[in-house]
Amino acid sequence: MEFDKLVHQPTRLQIFAYLYRHGETAFPELVEALDVTEGNLSSHLGRMEDAGAVTVEKQFVDRKPQTTYELTDEGQSKFEEHIDTLETLIDGLAGDTDEAGGQ
Amino acid sequence: MEFDKLVHQPTRLQIFAYLYRHGETAFPELVEALDVTEGNLSSHLGRMEDAGAVTVEKQFVDRKPQTTYELTDEGQSKFEEHIDTLETLIDGLAGDTDEAGGQ
């Protein structure tokens, strides 16, 4: 079972999940939704961009600069693979019954 | 959404999952099942023991020393909370439909 550290890191996992669900998202919306500092978010988004998992677009809205982020096809695939791995792990928990396994 | 680093780290997540499902497990079985080095496994189990998540028992089987590991109640609870968090994240992905959300 392989976990891709790019996706597995807790803050990035939540960024991936948010962008996967919501599509293109402006930076301030991500800050608010994920309850992270701007510096922390920038750092993780930068790493995701370096890995080819997100694209960044800068534009002006009401004369103010706005930066938006969107998962690339590769980013979506990486995230989907990661979720598949987690689901496999979770499904495995209910596999057999034994005395000490909980549930 | 909070991720407990004790549980979230990839190798430990798999140790938690294995012990949760299989109950008390001997060290060599864990090495084989998780495909990790003995040193790496020892290090992670040590950290889990320090955190009160596993108990360690040493006994002799056929005159050979054998070390077994088992999740404590606290370890089981931590793991269950973590799985709940992951399930919440995964369930959230299918929440609304929007144009860029993949699936």
TrEMBL record, chains A, B:
<dbReference type="InterPro" id="IPR011991">
    <property type="entry name" value="ArsR-like_HTH"/>
</dbReference>
<feature type="domain" description="HTH marR-type">
    <location>
        <begin position="1"/>
        <end position="101"/>
    </location>
</feature>
<feature type="domain" description="HTH arsR-type">
    <location>
        <begin position="2"/>
        <end position="88"/>
    </location>
</feature>
<dbReference type="InterPro" id="IPR001845">
    <property type="entry name" value="HTH_ArsR_DNA-bd_dom"/>
</dbReference>
<dbReference type="InterPro" id="IPR036388">
    <property type="entry name" value="WH-like_DNA-bd_sf"/>
</dbReference>
<dbReference type="Pfam" id="PF13601">
    <property type="entry name" value="HTH_34"/>
</dbReference>
<dbReference type="InterPro" id="IPR036390">
    <property type="entry name" value="WH_DNA-bd_sf"/>
</dbReference>
<dbReference type="InterPro" id="IPR000835">
    <property type="entry name" value="HTH_MarR-typ"/>
</dbReference>
<dbReference type="GO" id="GO:0003700">
    <property type="term" value="F:DNA-binding transcription factor activity"/>
</dbReference>
<dbReference type="GO" id="GO:0003677">
    <property type="term" value="F:DNA binding"/>
</dbReference>
<protein>
    <submittedName>
        <fullName>DNA-binding transcriptional regulator, MarR family</fullName>
    </submittedName>
</protein>
<dbReference type="InterPro" id="IPR027395">
    <property type="entry name" value="WH_DNA-bd_dom"/>
</dbReference>
<keyword id="KW-0238">DNA-binding</keyword>
